[in-house]
Specification:
The complex is a heterodimer. By secondary structure, chain A is mostly helical. In chain A, 73% of the residues lie in helices and 0% in strands. Chain A contains 6 helices and no strands. In chain A, helix 5 crosses helix 6. Chain B is mainly alpha-helical. In chain B, 66% of the residues lie in helices and 0% in strands. In chain B, helix 2 crosses helix 4. Classes of the chains: A mainly alpha, B mainly alpha. At the A-B interface, helix 1, helix 2, helix 3, helix 4 and helix 5 of A face helix 1, helix 2, helix 3, helix 4 and helix 5 of B.
């Protein structure tokens, strides 16, 4: 059975792909969230800072305008402070070392059949599944 | 100016897509990674839906070589894997599982995600700022 969540997931996915296509075909940039924000905060993307900031303004300002139209108002993030901090640090360091995250390596990299994008995606899925198993089913932490 | 407006539009459409697909809900993302529990395949539909138009965009982009606003289409990376890519992806996957957030959804939900979302983004940015110093340990540096 097809569930409504999967259909909405696919529709939202098409929108994400359209956004990445727009950013590539018009601006000539790869839409990777970690790269756009990371090069900004570590100073390496100073030359293209206005474009990065404009992207981030759209990314941060548009979703709250849409919240009333959808059922989502809660991210359900854990209230365990140490988990949030550890996860944020791992995501920050990991995506910058790897030069990409779910959008850059996952969406843009796989769509280009980039070996690095495909390998990175396989590795973070593998680590994600493993840590989920260890932390939830063995450790009872999350 | 055109470039900034288009960047904001792309960012806005990305954020809207993350909301429509419900990828800002950490339970959905953790459900996708919870292969040995109550597995939720939604993320596969999101990724599939995003890759389809982007694959077409790449074909077009690589034929035209230059984007509409004059920027050259980014060249392909050296396809070889390096330790930084491997280690970084593994660390990222671990953090992704722990909180159910990756960078895009964490930023998209910043205004309505409560203190937990703010702390996550602050920690993520701190990790990003610290990385150039860490990266030297995993040299050779990759552009």
């Amino acid at each position: 059975m097809i569930e409504p969540d999967w259909v909405w997931g696919f529709v939202g996915g098409l929108m994400i792909g359209a956004a990445a296509s727009l950013y590539l075909l018009v601006n000539g940039r790869i839409m990777g969230a970690s790269g756009i924000v990371g090069d900004l905060v570590d100073g390496s993307g100073r030359a293209t800072a206005p474009e990065r900031l404009a992207f981030l303004v759209g990314l941060i300002a548009v979703p709250p305008l849409m919240v009333p139209l959808t059922h989502v108002v809660d991210t359900h993030i854990t209230d365990k402070l140490w988990v949030i901090i550890a996860a944020g640090l791992l995501v920050g360091v990991g995506t910058r070392l790897a030069n990409g995250c779910t959008s850059g390596h996952g969406v843009c990299g796989i769509a280009r059949l980039s070996p690095r994008g495909i390998a990175a995606t396989a590795l973070y899925l593998l680590a994600g599944g493993l840590v989920m198993f260890l932390a939830r089913h063995l450790g009872g932490m999350i | 100016m055109q470039r900034l407006i288009m960047a904001a539009l792309a960012g806005g459409l990305f954020g809207a897509g993350l909301l429509v697909s419900n990828m800002v809900d950490t339970v959905k993302v953790q459900g996708w990674l919870d292969v040995f529990g109550d597995w939720d395949p939604t993320l596969a539909f999101v990724l599939g839906g995003a890759i389809l138009p982007m694959a077409l965009a790449w074909r077009l982009a690589e034929r035209r070589k230059v984007a509409a606003l004059g920027t050259p289409i980014p060249a392909r990376h050296d396809p070889r894997l390096d330790p930084a890519l491997v280690i970084g992806s593994l660390l990222f996957g671990a953090g992704w599982a722990l909180a159910g957030f990756c960078p895009g959804p964490a930023l998209a939900s910043l205004t309505f995600g409560g203190w937990g979302g703010l702390v996550f983004v602050a920690a993520m940015l701190a990790g990003m700022i610290a990385t150039p110093a860490l990266r030297a340990r995993f040299a050779p540096a990759h552009p």
